[in-house]
């Protein structure tokens, strides 16, 4: 995929769900704010983000990303554009439950691309489609901008694989390289 802008992805700071190893997507099943550590991760990253001279910020509209973006925006003095396509992968019946339960639903790595949990769950193909739709729309609307995207690990794993034109087998092979830690900034 050819990009008309410079994109930087930033995974939200540590939230309660990360600390407790709980799946949290839309709709949010419990109050899942940033932890004290999560807020510190963002404040630490702001120095790097300021140096990038960002023009636009897009963010998921889930609480932990909203809080992350609000801290960044306060420092950069920019407006936020929230976008539902940046929400975390919908884990369906596993939303609000242990991540181990969700991961246990998949017997093989390739199952992440084809199996969907009940109650509106998504697979990686669904998330990649959302990420592609988002990037194509932004590429049409803006040119030669520096854009910061604040979101979630599952979305960013698939977004990077999309931009790198990875096959599903390659995405599985390079999964460890595609994962962002909480509070991590990376050029797309």
Account of the 3D structure:
- By secondary structure, the chain is an alpha/beta fold.
- The protein has a single domain, classed as Rossmann fold (3-Layer(aba) Sandwich), CATH 3.40.50.
- Helices cover 45% and strands 12% of the residues.
- It is built from nine helices and five strands.
- Strands 3-2-4-1-5 form a five-stranded mixed beta sheet.
- α2 packs across α3 and α6 crosses α7.
- The longest helix is centred in the C-terminal third of the chain and has 18 residues.
- The N and C termini lie close together (11 Å).
β-strand number:
5
CATH architecture: 3-Layer(aba) Sandwich
Main beta sheet: 5 strands, mixed
The portion of residues forming beta strands comes to: 5-15%
The pLDDT mean sits at: 97
Radius of gyration: 16 Å
Give the terminus-to-terminus CA distance. 11 Å
Report the helical percentage: 40-55%
Please, how many helices? 9
CATH superfamily: Phosphoglycerate mutase-like
Instruction: Label the structural class.
Output: alpha/beta
Main sheet: strand order: 3-2-4-1-5
Instruction: Catalogue the unreliable spans.
Output: none
CATH topology: Rossmann fold
CATH structural class: Alpha Beta
Topology order in helix (H) and strand (E) letters? EHHEHEHHHEHHHE
Tell me the number of structural domains. Answer: 1
Which descriptor suits the 3D outline? globular
